[in-house]
User: Fold this.
Amino acid sequence: MSVDPFSLQPILRRRLLPELLYWLLTRLTRLVTGAQARWAGCAPVPVQRIYFGNHNSHADFALIWSSLPDALRRVTRPVAGADYWESNRLRRYIIHRLLRGVVIERNRDGRTGDPVAQMATALRAGDSLILFPEGTRNTTDDILLPIKTGIYHLATACPDVELVPVWMENLGRLLPKGEIIPVPLLCSITFGAPLRIAQEEPRDAFLARIREALLQTMRSARPQEP
Amino acid sequence: MNGPHPSLPLLAGCIVLLAALTATSIWLKWRLADGQPHPLIDSVNQRIRGWWGMTLGLGLALLAGGTGVTLLFALLSFAALREFLTIAPTRRGDHSALIMAFFVVLPFQYLLVALDMRDFQAVFIPAYAFLFLPFFSALKSDPRDFTARTGTIQWGLMITVYCVSHIPALLSLPIAGFEGRNVFLIAFLVLVVQGGELFHHLCSRVCGGHLLAPQISPHLTREGFFAGTACATLLGITLSWMTPFSLWHAALASLAVSTLGTLGGLVMSAMKRDRGVKDWGANASSTGMLDRIESLCFAAPVFFHLIRHWYAAGN
Assistant:
């Protein structure tokens, strides 16, 4: 029986190419960052979660994503800003086809979709999310930017999903905003203890807890004095 | 090639020696420590494990020839530089300088070694990288901690690239009557430096005495240092058959490299303490490459110069 080569082509493009790039992206990220995931506050188990991390570099996305075990990674979707990721074909391909990202419009003016509703829909479909509650990459000397309110609205909409803080060290030095070639410095990624929103928890108290959870994870990640 | 590879007997000897050491340490652990954690035996065991890696890596590279050895040390330099700069206080403005350090300076230095351009190899990093790299940082217009940043990058390049590159460079030194056996120089250097570090460590534990630098190394003592250096010098004399050295030269070279190695280790410990880490691989949650080779870094250039001065003068 002969195989029609033209019937194979779509399979190659739709199945094999994404799989190959997916594999390359995870391997390459691990190789360049040299990071091994430290699960300090929770275990890599198949529980629905919102992973929230500090944001210094585009490599953040790739690192959290690559640090998850394959089974978890396939049901975890990064939340990404439309202004950046929809701006050209390559980025659209990466965010939609490879990462299955939830693309939201960050700019309040003139947006059509509701970002919180989009994220909540993804959670209700059973997927986990990766998001950066600072809203944008931190290029300042401060350790964290102010936490945006989005994560509070999302947690209120889906109060049963646990929130896992993720602290990444050195990625801002590996690939700072605006640079193309990464410096192969060693990075680290630490997953902290999960938290949930309490009933009727005030917004500012919750945001303060989110911030403190990130800083707590950072402290557990820093090497101890000899 | 005719006959067996010249480094095969050496390699076999090292493997037998390591196997004997491993067996002894397992026996000691079982007899003395009853399988419980024991600081002295465990630290020796950790060294022995490192030596296995070193011997097997170097052995494979030796069988691959001079280019293999140069490539191996280029990779070691890369890993060590990566660990060093990971905990260096650099800022965003140093990005281009760091890219240059990893992807231009390091490969170029090893290219010079491979091409045997000894004179340029000796000045490339100390003079040219030293002069040119800070330009890249200065052009980013961020003066904060500038001296510390550029100083640390240069220091990292000197230790992890410049110094380490002297080890494969030993292979191309022309020594009359010693052709084809230069590999033994690397083996001699590694054995005496690593042996010297172990002797210093053991003698300090056994003899006790006055601590040399208690804030940096809580173990190393003055008495242990002198006794260890004497042992390392004896080791060098007994290994002089591997080298073109007379007994006197073997003793002097061993005295020099074992002293440099251990004091170099002390310098690196001071840096690690300054940065608040136990070892260079802290970020990767494992013992780093630089932890294993730091004492060799300090000994290699002086060893190279001694041999060049004594046996390859004019080259």
Summary: Residues 127 and 271 of chain B are 23 Å apart (CA to CA). Chain B has three domains: 1-29+50-64, 66-172, 175-315.
